[in-house]
Write a structure and sequence with these properties.
The chain is an alpha+beta fold and 431 residues long. It has two domains: 96 residues, Nucleic acid-binding proteins (OB fold (Dihydrolipoamide Acetyltransferase, E2P)); 302 residues, Bira Bifunctional Protein, Domain 2 (BirA Bifunctional Protein, domain 2). It contains 13 helices and 18 strands. α4 packs across α6, α4 packs across α13 and α6 packs antiparallel against α8. The two termini are 38 Å apart. It binds one RNA strand of 76 nucleotides through β2, β3, β4, α2 and β12.
RNA sequence: UCCGGAGUAGCUCAGCUGGUAGAGCAGGUGGCUGUUAACCACUUUGUCGGGGGUUCGAAUCCCUCCUCCGGAGCCA
């Protein structure tokens, strides 16, 4: 009797198989009862008929509880009455363990309760679906990069200083060297990487000790940073657009079931796989003001502004050429207007907010140096970064993708906390 | 940090012009041969977030602390 996965069940119609999993639910109706079984790959309904199994097996329904682990043997059978179209006519059930008092019911629960029970909540249908989409997004990003000449280049998580100097860092005692800080981006290190490898990326957790308390923020989240030599602003945007559109197509192709479980509006995702919109920061300000925003000339976009900008747009919107004052020191000036930098943020539609921040980098030693002095940065710490502009400096660009934001958008999740297995937020460190 | 909201049964919530706690779900028992978060009947369960105050009497009014949620700022 072969052990098969529920996702492959349609290849085994009218054949006897063994399934190994957990009881998602059961429904009984006298001399027939239904066992809803999940095994990680999918979910299937089992039918147990009194006159087709031993009395012992039939009576297992009295002890089976939600999330009990079981090994089920039976005949796969196509049946329209079953959710999913296939069911298993049960011949035998072996109980691995009876779960007692599983706390999460198939009913409404509050966020706090679910987060307290995150280690169990992970088993629920929607969480299962979101985490599978996360896997697809992760895989698609690396697949795109690998196919486009990017080499994986892991940057350190323990760093001596801030990448951008402004946001709050998590501090870690570091032997006799004082404090180290958890990285909030590997970007600066990637700039060293491209001078060796041409195109590089890193993909890992980054940490921001910001006291943000919104459904779009985590203190620990996964970011993919990519950096490429001899790539300038326009091409930088082109790479980003191609990457995101590749991710959308991958999710649509590989996660149809998951999107259905999540009741995600697939049409919205399909429509987003089209040429992205592009506007300058100046244009964005003008547009926002015409729509009632009180944003200033040199203002950063607020959450509401992001919503307004993408309202009525099926595709993500690039906002480019920002005032230098509100962007990071390493961004390259626009040659047509030295008050602007060649940075761009990509705003996802449907209110999911910023998913990418990127820019062409300043490659002139003296201009970068002046900027760092102006921002009162510790030059000793960044000497190595300045060095990169002394030994064969080239124009180069890069960007960072927030994995959870992208997963949140793809899956339509209300909470970013659901887009990572164990979310870290300002008031939650466990489980 | 600031602004707003919420803590009542295992869970989701009602009760809040002060009079001693209630529903649905989960759990338990029984019924039902096609259920779809099945259904029907019966049934167990409470430091009413902690502390203090007002009152004959507080889940309800006042003070305070704690926890959580949403948002702002900052950002992916």
């Amino acid at each position: 009797m072969s052990w098969v996965l529920i996702k492959d069940i349609k290849d085994y119609n009218d054949r006897e198989v063994t399934l190994k999993g957990w009881v998602y639910n059961k429904r009984s109706s006298g001399k027939i009862w239904f066992l809803i079984l999940r095994d990680g790959s999918g979910i299937i309904q089992g039918v147990v008929l009194k006159n087709e199994v031993s009395e012992e097996v039939f009576n297992i329904k009295d002890e089976l509880t939600q999330e009990s682990s079981v090994i089920v043997q039976g005949l796969i059978h196509e049946d329209r009455r079953s959710p999913g179209g296939y069911e298993i006519v049960v011949r035998d059930i072996k109980v691995v363990q009876i779960a007692t008092d599983y706390p999460i019911a198939l009913k409404d629960h509050g966020v706090e309760f679910l987060m307290d029970n995150r280690h169990l909540w992970l088993r629920s249908r929607k969480q299962w679906a979101i985490l599978r989409i996360r896997h697809t997004v992760y895989y698609a990003i690396t697949e795109y990069l690998n196919n486009n000449g990017f080499i994986r280049f892991d940057s350190p998580l323990l760093t001596p200083n801030a990448c951008e100097g402004t946001t709050t860092l998590f501090t870690v005692p570091y032997f006799d060297l004082g404090n180290a800080y958890l990285s909030q981006s590997g970007q600066l290190y990637l700039e060293a990487g491209i001078m060796s490898l041409g195109r590089v990326y890193d993909f890992g957790p980054v940490f921001r000790a910001e006291k943000s308390k919104t459904r779009k923020h985590l203190t620990e989240f996964w970011m993919m940073d990519a950096e490429a030599a001899y790539v300038e602003h326009d091409e930088n945007l082109k790479i980003q657009e191609e990457l995101i559109r590749f991710v959308i197509r991958s999710v649509l192709e590989k996660n149809a079931t998951e999107l259905e479980v999540l009741e995600r509006d697939i049409e919205q995702l399909k429509k987003a796989d089209a040429p992205f919109k592009r506007m300058t920061h100046k244009e964005a300000i003008e547009y926002l003001r015409s729509r009632g925003s009180e944003i200033s000339d040199k203002g950063d976009l607020g959450a509401k502004d992001e919503v307004i900008l993408t309202e009525g747009s099926d595709v993500p919107v690039f906002v480019e050429k920002w005032p230098k004052e509100i962007k990071a020191f390493y961004m390259k000036r626009d040659k047509d207007n030295s008050n602007l930098v060649l940075g761009a943020d990509l705003i996802a539609p449907e209110g999911f907010g910023e998913i990418i921040g990127g820019s062409q980098r300043e490659d002139d030693h003296d201009l970068l140096y002046q900027r760092m002095v102006a921002e009162d940065m510790p030059l000793d710490e960044y000497q190595w970064f300045l060095d990169l502009r002394k030994y064969g400096s080239v124009p180069h660009s890069g960007f960072g993708v927030g994995l959870e934001r992208l997963v949140q958008w793809m899956s339509g999740a209300v909470q970013i906390r659901e887009s990572i297995p164990f979310a870290r937020t300002i008031y939650r460190l466990r489980p």
